[in-house]
Design goal:
Elements: H1 5-8, H2 15-18, H3 40-48, E1 56-62, H4 81-99, H5 102-105, E2 109-116, H6 124-135, E3 139-149, H7 156-164, E4 169-175, H8 179-185, H9 191-201, E5 208-215, H10 222-234, E6 239-244, H11 252-258, H12 274-290, E7 294-295, E8 300-302, H13 310-315, E9 320-324, E10 329-332, E11 335-339, H14 343-355, H15 360-363, E12 373-376, H16 382-394, E13 396-398, H17 404-419, E14 423-425, E15 429-432, H18 434-438, H19 440-453
Parallel strand pairs: 1-2, 1-9, 2-3, 3-4, 4-5, 5-6
Antiparallel strand pairs: 6-8, 7-8, 10-11, 11-12, 13-15, 14-15
Helix pairs in contact: 4-6, 6-7, 10-12, 16-19
Protein name: Heme anaerobic degradation radical SAM methyltransferase ChuW/HutW
Cofactor: [4Fe-4S] cluster
Organism: Shewanella subflava
């Protein structure tokens, strides 16, 4: 039996701060797949074949931003209106075609997520157009349909057009309420304007209003973070995500760090280390729960039952997610796909498809345009791994979901986690401590490493 500190963490009087060295990635995964080439025949076959999945989602990518934030390395395209308009027209046409296929019509979708980029930078009419295209897919009753974006520029016209066309959940990247920290991070709007707008939106009787906060931003001291948590509760938001700043290669913070600089505020060059970020997470988690917010995952809390976080929960369960748009990711019939980000190539694929689908009878049988993408073969372990990803992310791994042989095999790892203050173990399952919830991605990574080095015979 091989056990390493990257699997188990280390013995420490303060596991919250020191069980692992640092969180180095936003997600954990292991690969049992290989790259595959998808020709036109296979692509057509996929869209003409009914799904075998019982849970499904749509992911739609809007790859435009008006401004690049300091912590982001995903900036793709500037938000030029004519470029966005061309993209949205083409995207909605592709969605309309896809919605009519046997693949799409064979099983309703539980949730839809429109991400980016900054989807709220599109116009009110484009939001309506997109919502109508989404409604062409079969959706379960009361399906969760999320529009992601920023509060700046999201006026009542956009909000009402979204509501009138099927959107019922709105996820805003606030990151911090502090005006100076926001300015240093490249965000729009000051604290007072953010709070006022969130309080307005949250008064809607049914829409779920969700915000993201990041802890560890340059210039964000513990005092400022505590004020951020209070502001989140004062905002009226129905759900809050707490995300740790990750040193993603290529973003402005990373590039400044390579030069020995910190992109702090005019008043502070403070940069939280891993131990301080752990304390920030603990403060946020404890404060929400002391104020009767319900924890739905290790990083997400809600104050109102209208917030369900369905997409984020199901995405960890190995469900089918049909991807649309340049840069969109998901999977079809178990084949993982990541669409290439290049807009020119994405648009050219639509033109090429149109050139051979002019005949109406042929067009009715065609799939949406096959865009440039990286595709991987089905991972035979995806549903098995999803049990652990979903369980550890929620904070509770129920042994009823696992064969006794698997539980017995993992017992040395689970006992090490318990010894190191990351979990408590009993006959029914494994429950993560506060420290375990903070380090849950490291623990997932360690569990997959354990399987790789200690295969089940």
């Amino acid at each position: 039996m091989i056990l390493t500190s990257t699997m188990t963490g280390i013995d420490s009087p303060d596991p919250l701060q020191h069980a692992f060295k640092v969180k180095s990635a936003p997600h954990a995964a292991r690969s049992g797949s290989r790259p595959v080439t998808v020709d036109d025949a296979l692509w057509q076959q996929w869209w003409q074949t009914p799904t075998q999945a019982d849970k499904r989602a749509l992911y739609i990518h809007i790859p435009f931003c008006r401004k690049r934030c300091s912590f982001c390395n995903f900036f793709e395209n500037g938000a030029k209106p004519e470029r966005i308009s061309h993209y949205m027209t083409t995207l909605c046409q592709q969605l309309t075609t896809a919605a009519q296929t046997p693949l799409a019509q064979s099983q309703p979708f539980d949730t839809v997520y429109v991400g980016g980029g900054t989807p709220t930078d599109i116009t009110a009419d484009e939001i309506a157009q997109l919502g109508q295209a989404i409604q062409g897919f079969p959706l379960v009753a009361n399906a969760e349909v999320t529009l992601e974006g920023r509060l700046n520029g999201f006026d009542d016209d956009k909000f009402n057009h979204a509501l009138d066309n099927g959107f019922n959940r709105f996820s805003f990247g606030v990151q911090s309420f502090d005006t100076e920290v926001r300015k240093a991070a490249g965000r729009f709007d000051d604290k007072d304007r953010l709070l006022a707008r969130l309080q307005q939106l949250s008064q809607h009787p049914t829409a779920s209003i969700v915000i993201d906060l990041i802890f560890g931003l340059p210039g964000q001291t513990m005092d400022i973070w505590q004020q951020d948590i209070q502001a989140a509760m004062d905002s009226g938001a129905h759900g809050v995500d707490l995300y740790q700043l990750i040193a993603l290669a290529g973003n402005r913070i990373d590039k400044a760090g390579e030069k020995g600089k910190i992109l702090g505020t005019d008043n502070s060059d403070f940069q939280a280390d891993s131990q301080t970020r752990a304390n920030m997470y603990a403060y946020g988690a404890k404060t929400f729960e002391e104020n009767q917010w319900q924890r739905l995952s290790s990083c997400h809390w809600r104050s109102d039952e209208r917030e369900r976080s369905i997409y984020n929960s199901l995405a960890k369960s190995g469900i089918e997610i049909l991807p649309f748009g340049a840069g969109g990711g998901g999977n079809i019939h178990g084949y993982s796909m990541m669409n290439a980000r290049g807009l020119s190539e994405w648009h050219q694929a639509q033109v090429t498809t149109e050139s051979y689908s002019s005949d109406a009878s042929l067009a009715a049988k065609l799939a949406p345009a096959k865009v440039p993408a990286m595709t991987l073969s089905p991972n035979p372990l995806v549903h098995f791994d999803a049990i652990f990803k979903r369980g550890l992310d929620s904070g509770v791994l129920d042994f009823n979901n696992l064969a006794p042989k698997v539980v017995a095999h993992l017992k040395p790892l689970f006992e090490a986690w318990q010894q190191h203050g990351l979990a408590t173990l009993d006959d029914n399952g494994l429950s993560l401590t506060l420290a375990g919830r903070f380090w849950n991605v490291n623990m997932q990574t360690g569990l997959f490493e354990f399987f790789d080095k200690n295969p089940i015979v």
